[in-house]
UniProtKB/TrEMBL annotation:
UniProt-recorded name of the protein: Transporter substrate-binding domain-containing protein
Pfam families associated with the record: Lig_chan, SBP_bac_3
Source organism of this protein record: Gelidibacter maritimus
Cross-referenced InterPro entries: Ionotropic_Glu_rcpt, Iontro_rcpt_C, Solute-binding_3/MltF_N
Top-level taxon of origin: Bacteria
Main location: membrane
Domain Solute-binding protein family 3/N-terminal: 38-367
């Protein structure tokens, strides 16, 4: 009886611990990590995400981090870096616990570090001047390759009609259609033009049955042809008069002078579309070249461009709705960091309470 009791007790003990231990482990992996030491926070990036140390303004990334750290009651100390790559290098060396700034979350970086969820989704954008079109810019569409091809086809058709009229009329009406080929076809083309334009001078007119059939058929065809051509030219002129010097998509930048930050992803992006790239050191230099008409457009990260435009509303600038190379900005951590769960959860709380959105709106245009 005593042996049976011992076996039953041992079985219950094993059963309880087999289920309790995994459950406890699962809870521990999700539990908040207690921070007792001072966190080493690397700061890198540019405005509006990170401002200089001597500035009274902090920036989007720093404000979000400080709200997050305050909610978790974490102590931390900042260390500033000139570039994001310098900060990430120190992170991998084990000298930092986290890097704060506009850190692009990329598959390549995930091989040797970890990231929080994105606190902002960025992309490349195009900024151009809002200028009135010059006379040449308004009439330039009329000299496009498509229009020249259409005119060439029209002249060929006109020559064919003129030849057919001459062949039909040259024997019965030699006074109107000379026997010489060049003069006869020229007369036939003149008759075709007069017929198409409904000018009707009456100096030339077919008298044979076949001549009249050809002329009648040409009248019907020319009405359709002329109407379509006139409508196309009119719409082109109308769109040109309503247009501006702005660019709506990257395809329009082919062969244009475009400023961007040297060695940035936007530089490689512009090379794909055969833009004439002007490399600069910062956004202010790029925008200065745009305003002074040294370049036709500026391409760079959308939030930085929006921030510049918000602070320079007196400049007539336009930012296209088109977005390219979309990337998320997040905080970077060592691969084995125990901070990520707490950071992600708190970021979600800040997003749900609209605190992240309010910080972004403070620096960028609300419409964006």
């Amino acid at each position: 009886m005593r042996l049976k009791t011992l076996v039953t007790a041992f079985t219950l003990f094993c059963f309880t611990h087999l289920f309790y231990i995994p459950t406890l482990y699962a809870q521990d992996t999700k539990a908040s990590f207690s921070i007792t030491d001072e966190l080493r926070v690397g700061v890198a990036g540019n405005e509006p995400f990170v401002f200089a140390q001597n500035s009274s303004t902090k920036g989007i990334a720093l404000e979000i981090w400080e709200d997050l750290a305050n909610k978790k009651s974490w102590d931390y100390i900042y260390k500033s870096y000139d570039t994001v790559e310098d900060a990430l290098y120190d992170l991998n060396k084990g000298n930092l616990d986290v890097v704060v700034g506009p850190i692009s979350i990329t598959s390549q970086r995930l091989e040797y570090m970890n990231f929080s969820q994105p606190f902002y989704n960025s992309s490349l954008a195009i900024v151009s001047r809002v200028d009135d079109l010059t006379l040449w810019q308004r009439i330039k569409p009329l000299f496009s390759m498509k229009l020249l091809i259409a005119v060439g086809i029209f002249l060929i058709i006109l020559a064919i009609v003129g030849t057919l009229l001459w062949l039909a009329e040259r024997k019965r009406s030699p006074e109107q259609f000379p026997s010489k080929i060049a003069d006869g076809i020229g007369t036939g083309m003149w008759l075709a033009i007069v017929t198409m334009s409904t000018t009707g001078y009456g100096d030339k007119a077919p008298i044979t049955l076949w001549g009249r059939i050809i002329a009648g058929s040409w009248m019907i065809i020319s009405i359709i042809f002329a109407t379509s051509m006139v409508a196309g030219i009119a719409s082109t002129l109308t769109l040109s008069s309503l247009g501006s010097s702005t660019f709506a998509n990257v395809e329009q930048l082919s062969g244009r002078k475009v400023a961007t930050i040297s060695a940035s992803p936007s530089e490689a992006f512009l090379k794909e579309y055969k833009a004439k790239i002007t490399g600069v050191d910062n956004i202010n230099e790029a925008m200065s070249k745009l305003v002074n008409k040294e370049v036709d457009a500026v391409v760079y990260d959308r939030p930085q461009l929006l921030y510049y435009m918000k602070n320079h509303k007196d400049e007539e600038l336009f930012i296209a709705k088109a977005e390219y190379y979309k990337q998320g900005y997040g905080f970077a951590f060592p691969v084995d960091s125990k901070l990520i769960y707490d950071v992600n959860r708190t970021l979600l709380e800040l997003a749900e309470s609209q605190e992240v959105l309010n910080i972004v709106h403070h620096y960028l245009d609300k419409d964006e």
